[in-house]
Every structure is written in structure tokens, then in C-alpha cells.
Amino acid sequence: MADATETDFDRRLNLKPPVRLTVEGLRVIYRTRRGPFQAVDGISFEVEPGTVLGLVGESGCGKSTVVKALMRLLPDGTRIEGRVLLDGQDLLAMDKRALRRVRWNKVALITQSAMNALDPVIRVGDQIVESIRAHEAVDRATAWRRAETLFRLVGLPAHRLNEFPHQFSGGMRQRAVIAMALSLNAGLLLADEPTTALDPIMQDQIMSRIRGIQELLHRSMILVTHDIGLVAENCDMVAVMYAGQIIEKGPVAEVLVKPRHPYTIGLHNAFPRMPEEGEARPPLISIAGGLPNLLNPPPGCRFAPRCPFATERCRVETPPLRELEPGHSAACHYAERAEDFRRLGLLPETWAVKEAAA
Amino acid sequence: MRQPASAAPMIEARDLKTHFRVGGGVFTALAGQKPQVARALDGVDLTIRAGEVVGLVGESGCGKSTLGMTLVRMVEPTGGEILHDGQPITGIAGARLKAYRARAQIIFQDPYSSLNPRLTVGRIVGEALQIHGIGTRADRTERMRDALRKVRLPPEEFEDRFPSDLSGGQRQRVAIARGLVLDPSFIVADEPVSMLDVSVQAGVLELLDELSRNLGLAVLYISHDIATVGYICDRVAVMYLGRVVEEGPVRTILRHPKHPYTQRLMAAIPNVDPLVRRPRVVLEGDVPSPLNVPAGCRFVTRCPYAQEICRRAEPDLLREGDGRTARCHLYGALAGTPVAAEAAKDAAAIAA
Ligand SMILES: Nc1ncnc2c1ncn2[C@@H]1O[C@H](COP(=O)(O)OP(=O)(O)OP(=O)(O)O)[C@@H](O)[C@H]1O
Ligand SMILES: Nc1ncnc2c1ncn2[C@@H]1O[C@H](COP(=O)(O)OP(=O)(O)OP(=O)(O)O)[C@@H](O)[C@H]1O
Ligand code: SF4
Ligand code: SF4
Ligand SMILES: [Mg+2]
Ligand SMILES: [Mg+2]
Predict the structure, then answer these.
(1) Chain A residues touching B280 at Cβ < 8 A
(2) Which residue has better confidence, B33 or B279?
(3) What domains appear along chain B, each with residue ranges and CATH number?
(4) What is the second-level CATH architecture of the domain A6-239?
(5) B191 Cβ partners below 8 Å, 6+ apart?
(6) Is B159 part of the contact surface with chain A (CB cutoff 8 Å)?
(7) Mutate to test the interface with B, among A169, A225, A273 (most CBs of B within 10 A)
(8) Cα radius of gyration (chain B)
(9) Given the DSSP bridges, would you call strands A328-330 and B325-326 parallel, antiparallel or unpaired?
(10) Phi-psi region of A186 (alpha: psi -120 to 50; beta: other; left: phi over 0)
(11) Fewer beta carbons below 10 Å: N end or C end of chain A?
């Protein structure tokens, strides 16, 4: 498939340098009717050029807020503090013009509501072409051909570019949006649940294609997902969030195999497993209770109300994120006892006691 | 283990068809083109008993949501029959249709577009009670709060909030609460937990499971998440391009798939252990379109075992000894041939 467009596209792809992302003390405070709501509370992490960071954690813990903050796509009135360094340049300090240059060109986002991101009255192909031409000086025909290439990349027949979003199934719309996000070939791709709406085969193909591009061209990526399998197969590093904070981070092979934080341990064990034939179904482990109310966060460890291992100390003293092994940190006073926690964490009784907290 | 449901069928689809006309606009007519027909649902047979959770899996665009929406009568079938509790509901209208709609609920795949942004969570969940004129105002509030509690959204914290300031997972729980509030007898859950992390997912799945068991609710659970399907469902139906190609007890189908499509589907599931490398099984060929369904077997354009007969005749649903049905010539006309042996060998390799 060596037509002129693709060569042009490939060359453009290669011209873009990889991006290093350093986030320092990021804090996001939404303005709400009930007062300031601190959705993200001082988190720091790094994405090395060409690597993939998985971002996981309970619904509502702030993952989408983090990725939107990295694009400065939060509603007006939201306070963002800290530093977001893209190759050393602070994105949070940029003026509108500089931001426009960086956004989508250097860092692109596949939003969680991607399925809904398409304009219902404009043909899908025209939307992609528009988005390309808004950021790059190319003619319509070139942009259209690139859209065709991208459609094939995400497994959609090119002729469907002529259709309207409602003619697509949920998964097709999702893939169209992925194609749009890839169309500018940013050095850093933020993917918020990009394949949640897709079937396993399509997810597998798209992830391996995104991974292919990412590895070949040394792209960096943040993958927000709740699918531990996706993290295990696609990420180098993983950060686990809880109530606006990172409570554990490290190499995937460490964190998923030997989690140190009780929350990560619970998350790990909550993954449903199909029983063997004839075997009784093991009870699902669900961590009772919910996230603390962040309008008024409790003192001490934020997981304490739901943690089966919490002590008095946990309720008063905030555990700092500390490094336990090279590159692997956790924010728990008792992270040294993780081996016991992992054993106890396999028993549903361990997690059941706190039901009243819900 | 769950008792195999022996109750009467709660919902039944017989040769159900939903065809959409596409491109029927003025321009197509002026250009002298015929409008095309998308055969989104093209002859589906499916039974869900009271107290049973049936999983529905398959490729994006294969017709799962269309089946769900057709079963609850949000989309008009163009052929076949739907029975609810033994009663035909395909032709009903007016008050009977309204009554059916209260009994058959759907929880939508996309919690972004399905919640009215101008209504509070409490209104969204309670609205259906009002529409159906149920109870006093106080009863309705109590039932609304009850539904919110069931999905772990404390009403005191959530009932006055708007969808726009909820996270994706919280919105999904609102959608589930709305589906539960009328105490339905049949629920289509279209990707109800796809945006929830596993710790919350577990709670919602147990809830669906409990409701089906205790209240005799029939659940059609549509999902791409095979792990949750394997965990929660009694039986599973695998769809491909508008038809069910394999159906049966969940563990039988997921552990020992027989249809070549199901086998490839199972091979695509990521392994949760980062230290294990899974062999990649690629599925060649383009995703076929319901506008242009291939003759013979629907999977023929991508099946590595396709034979002459596959291009000629669509295989019937063949009943196997283990309680499953599969729609593939390998187990009928082609049984015992070298290609069937080859397929069996590949299947063993994928499963290993
Ligand atoms: N615009 C907003 N105004 C006020 N609060 C908000 C707003 N957007 C999100 N929130 C709140 O901030 C918290 C974090 O939301 P966010 O969308 O980042 O969660 P998430 O981790 O992505 O969850 P999910 O996995 O469910 O998508 C939630 O409690 C949510 O209710
Ligand atoms: N209103 C409509 N008009 C025309 N075609 C439609 C319409 N609704 C759905 N289709 C087509 O019918 C097919 C089935 O769509 P459906 O939404 O049922 O798929 P699905 O299996 O739920 O997919 P996903 O897993 O992506 O949600 C698709 O090819 C889709 O393009
Ligand atoms: S610090 Fe205490 S409450 Fe927090 S996770 Fe560790 S043991 Fe549990
Ligand atoms: S009938 Fe033929 S083409 Fe269809 S799945 Fe079976 S072997 Fe493949
Ligand atoms: Mg989110
Ligand atoms: Mg669907």
C-alpha cells in the first residue's frame, strides 16, 4: 500500500520526536455548588518517551480529570495547580496560542465519551478531515486519503467515511474517534478507556495496532482503563489512583503480581474469574463502601474507612507514597506487611466486614 | 453453583428479524438508487427463563444492541416473534405496549447520551414511576432512593446532582438504578458495567445476579467483557452478523468453543498475568456489513476452514450432546472430513 498519501503520512509520522511527560504535584479543584471539590490531590508521575503508563482506579477516583487536565480541557472556573511538563515545557503555564500549537499536535486525547464526541449531523469523514485541516495545512483530498488510511487502521471500511454517526454501532463510533485522535500523530497519546466499547477481537487488533505505532515511532501513551488484562499486556508502568491520589505505582510486572497497597490487592482480587466446570463459583470480592466525599476529605489514609487492615494510626496519619523497591512505591503505613495482606485479601470475609460503611 | 433454571421462558425470540432501511433519502431516490437494507438482526432464536442470566457476546456491530432494543420493543421487528411470559408481544400497541414497557427494561450502553443533562439524578431515576403513575409522591421518592442505594449511590449525596458532574461509572450506576426502579421482570443490560472498575463492577454484577435469582428476573447481559460473562451468566449466546452462531451453558461455550468465530473471540482475551504471553490469533478479512451479508455461512469470508458447501448453504443450528447449539458445517456436513480434524487441532492449540 505505497500510494503517495501513505508515504507522506509515514514521513510525517517519523518527523515527530517522542515526548517526555513529567507531572509534578498536579491538583485539580472543580468549582461546584457545594464548594470546591478537590478531584485530584497533588499527584506526580512521569511517562518516559516511548513507554505506556496505565492509569487505573475506582470509578470517580479522578482518572479522566487527570487526562483532561493534561490537555487543559477542564470546565471554566476549575483550578489547576502543579506542573505538567512536556519535554520540559510547562503546559499549565502556556498562553492560549502556545497551547493551541501543542494540543492535538503534541498531545492527543481519546475521551471516555468518545462515542458521543461526533457531531450527529456531519458525515464522519468530513469531521475527521476538518479536524486534520484545523491543525495542519493540507488540502482536502490529502486529508481525506489520510482519513481512509486511518479508517483501515482501526478496521473500518473506508467507504463508511461517507456515513453519519447514527448509522454506526457504538463500537464503530468509538473506532472513528480513535482514528481522529491518531490523525495528527501526537507524540503523547492520552487514551481514556479507548476500547471499552469494543469487542475483544477488535480491542485486541486496535491495541496491537496502537502499540505497533507507539513502539515503531517511539510514542508515549497513558492508557486509562479498568481492564487489568489490558494493563498487563500493554503497559510498562502502572499508577493506581484512589480518591484523587496515586496510592501505588511501579512496573506492571511488579504492581500486578505483587501489589503492596491493600486497595490494589482488593482490586486485583475483585477480577472475576470463570470457575472450572463443576467447580462452585467463588464469591466475587467487592470492596464494600465507596469513595470518601472529597468536599470534605477525611484525615489520615483515605482508604481507611474501607481498609480491612486499618489501625488507629491510619485514621490520623496520612501515609506518604514511598518507594519500597526500585521504581515501585505505595502509600500505606504497613506496606511491609503486603505479603500477609495479599494472602488475607483472597478471602471474601476479609472485605465483607465493612459493609456498614456503604 | 447456580441451579439450572427450569422455570418457564420469560422472554423468547423466534426467528426475530430487524432490518433497517438506509440511504432512503431524496438524493438516493433522485439518483435512481434503491435504498439499501441493513439486516442488523436476521433470524435470531433465543430463550431466557425467569431467574436466568443469559450473556450475549459478539463483534461490534453484529446486532447485540438491536436485539436488546427489539426485545423491549424500542425498535420494531420486521419479522419473527417475541413472547413475554408466553404472550405474543410483537403486535401489541397502546396500553398493552405501555404495560409491557414497564415490565421490560433496558439499561443503555452509553451513559453519556442516555441521561437527560437537565434533570437531577433523583428525577432521572424517579421519572419512570411518574410516567407509569405509580404510588404517592412519598412512595415514589422512597422507591427512587431505594434504587439509588442498590447501586451504591447514597441518595443524600447524589439525588440532587446533575449527570454532568458525575464520573462515567457513577452515570452508569444512575442508568442501572433507573432500570431497576419499576421492578421489571426482564432486563436488557447493554454493557452495564463496561465503565466500572472491577471492585464496583463486582457489586453491580452480584446485584444483577441476586435480582435474577431472588426476584425471578430474566436478564440479557450484553457485554464484551468475557470474564464477567463467564462469571455471572448461566448461558451465553454468541452472535455474528445478525445471527446466533453458538449458544449454550456458559462454561461449556467459553472453555470449549466449537464455532470457529467463538474460538477466535476467546483467543483475543488479554491475559491478566503480565508474565504470561498469549499466542496471537489473527482474524483475517474485513468486518462484513449487514448491508451485504455473504451467501451461505455468514462467517465464510473470514473463516480459515471455509469449504465449498459453506459458500452455498447456511448451516443450521446443530444441537450438540452437551446442551449447546452451533451453526457450523464442521459439525454437520463436514464432520469427519480432514478440515474438521484440522479445525479441532487448531482449537486445541488455541485453548492450551
Ligand atoms: N465538571 C465537574 N464538576 C464537578 N465535579 C466533577 C466534574 N467532573 C467530574 N467531577 C467529579 O470528580 C471526580 C472524579 O471524576 P473523573 O471523571 O475524573 O473520574 P474517573 O476516575 O475518570 O471515573 P470513571 O472511571 O467512572 O470514568 C468524581 O467524583 C466526579 O463526580
Ligand atoms: N438506525 C439504524 N439505521 C441503520 N443501520 C443501523 C441502525 N442501527 C444500527 N444499525 C446497524 O446495525 C448493525 C448492528 O448495530 P448494533 O448497534 O445492534 O450493534 P452492536 O452489536 O450493539 O455493536 P456494539 O458492540 O458496537 O455496540 C450495525 O451494522 C449498525 O450500523
Ligand atoms: S495506611 Fe492503613 S488504612 Fe491505609 S491502606 Fe494502609 S493499612 Fe489500610
Ligand atoms: S460453516 Fe464453514 S465457513 Fe462457516 S464457520 Fe463453519 S467452517 Fe467456517
Ligand atoms: Mg473517567
Ligand atoms: Mg451495542
Answers:
(1) 204, 208
(2) B279
(3) 50-77+89-254 (3.40.50.300), 256-352 (no CATH)
(4) 3-Layer(aba) Sandwich (3.40)
(5) A170, A197, B109, B222, B223, B224
(6) no
(7) A169
(8) 22
(9) unpaired
(10) beta
(11) N
Residue at B256: amino acid letter: H
* Ligand 4 pocket list (CB less than 6 A): B 260, 297, 299-300, 303, 305-306, 310, 315, 328-330
- Tens-place pLDDT, residues A75-115: 999 999 999 999 999 999 999 989 988 888 889 998 876 66
pLDDT digits (tens, 9 = 90+) for B46-87: 999 999 999 999 988 899 999 999 999 999 999 999 999 999
ipTM of the complex: 0.76
- Quick one: pLDDT band at residue B30, thresholds 50, 70, 90? low
pTM: 0.82
Strand partners of residue A221: A52, A189
A 294-353: CB under 8 A from B: none
Nearest residue to A48 via CA among A76, A18, A84 = A18
B229: nearest Cα among A256, A269, A200:
A200
Per domain, the residue ranges of chain A are 6-239, 259-357
Per-residue model confidence (pLDDT) at position B312: 96
Is A196 touching B (CB cutoff 8 A)? yes
Is residue B93 exposed (0-12), middle (13-18) or buried (19+ Cβ within 10 Å)?
exposed
What cell was used for A177? 474517534
| Buried-state track B121-134, b at ≥16 Cβ within 10 A, e below 16 | bbebbbbbbeeeeb
Does pLDDT of B288 surpass 70? yes
Across chain A, mean pLDDT equals 86
pLDDT band at A330 (very low <50, low <70, confident <90, very high): very high
Give the nearest ligand 4 atom to B305 CA: 7
